[in-house]
Amino acid sequence: MLGLLKIVGLGVLVASALVATSLAHAEDVKLMDGVTPRPNDTRMTAAGAFKKDPPWVIGMSDFGVNANTWTVQVAHEAENAAAKDKRISKFILLDAGFDQKKQVADIEDLIAQHVDAIIVQPVTSTSANASIAKAVAAGIPVILHTGRIDSDAYTTEIQGGAEHFGKVMGDWLVKTVGDNGKIWVLRGLAGHPEDTNRYNGLLESLKGTHVQIIAEEHGDWQYDKAKKLCETLYLNNPQVDGIWSSGADMTRACVDVFKQFGTPIPPISGEGNNGYFGQWITDGFKSISPEYSPAQGAAGVRAAVDLLEGKQLYKRYVYNPDGWDRDKAAKYYRDDLTANVWWPSELPEDKLKEYYGKK
User: Helix or strand or coil: residue 165?
Assistant: First the structure.
């Protein structure tokens, strides 16, 4: 009997050690600064579930590489991370161009090419669900980021907290304009989950206040479209106490409009963009910068590599950093680089100068 107890006890110890080892794998994974497992969600991939010997081919389905300057840099960050890992023999980047059907076809194409992992930035919350499920069923891990889907068929996701992002700006704006303030709302790309969830964060900030949204428009996170919108809004009603802007390219556009009309710039939210940082530092208007690093592209590549190495990952990771003030923005601002670079970045100095150096 004593011998049996020893065997059972040894079995418990071995099982405990295996559990501890698997947890250590998950806890020791470093995807990106500020990225942590989602609280209260302990689901993990099975140890070794996607382990494959290199070389590896990794595919990426982007919702729209040229959506704006931020998405361009996400692609650069992903490509750079893949190029640094010599075990990745090929990195295939496909651009859906905001087309749901194109994204489905792109993922199907990557499956047909027998890639070893697929990174997906979804066009909408439903557009890629069936294709993602098909990839996972074929033994291909799918890493999701920059937009949630209403399915959990993916392998793991790394999500900047869109509601958190919107609420960081909303809380600051409510505090700045006061309980009866009148605000404009500049949203991103209509239908994109990131736009919807950032806006939901703003609505949380407005609960229990008397702040009024006197204008609400979609600027698609683009400078040119937002500049036309802000010009129209200003000409229709320039009496605005503050502006909630879902992205820094739109912020830059609105700041330029107020400067164009020679009137004070109202409090306006921004984002970690070099051009906006330059405006903020020079013009001194009231602002806050939520952090939303384009290095999420690199984090997606690292997640794919971790899975192919046989490591365990949590099902869901979150990225909810604090907002930046002007002093922190000044530490990142680079006068020698164009307005199109976003912070924080993992691109090395030579790539920053190649892509964003002023000519």
Answer: helix
Relative orientation angle of helices 223-236 and 248-260, to the nearest 10 degrees: 40
What the block records as the tokens of 94 is 């496909």
Q: Sorting pLDDT into bands at 50, 70 and 90, what band is 16?
A: very low
- Considering the domain delimited by 162-283, tell me its CATH architecture: 3-Layer(aba) Sandwich (3.40)
- CA–CA gap between residue 99 and residue 63 (Å, rounded): 8
Nearest to 57 by CA among 106, 90, 93: 90
Pairing relationship of beta strands 316-319 and 35-37 according to DSSP bridges: antiparallel
Of the pLDDT bands very low, low, confident and very high (cuts 50, 70, 90), residue 193 is confident
What is the pTM (predicted TM-score) of this model? 0.85
The fold for domain 23-160+293-321 equals Rossmann fold (3.40.50)
Cis peptide before 348 (omega within 30 of 0): no
Write out the H or E segment, with its range, that includes residue 93. strand 88-95
- Token pair of 4 as six digits: 């049996």
What would the pLDDT profile of 31-40 be if each residue is shown by its tens digit?
999 999 999 9
Return the pLDDT at 28: 67
Which residue has better confidence, 328 or 128? 328
Give how far Cα 49 sits from Cα of 44, 52, 93, 160, 307, Å.
11, 9, 24, 26, 8
In the chain, CATH 3.40.50.2300 sits at 23-160+293-321, 162-283
The Cα–Cα gap between 187 and 37 comes to: 28
Distance CA 89, CA 108 (A): 20
What six digits make up the tokens of 149? 């889907």
Q: Residue 306 carries which DSSP code?
A: H
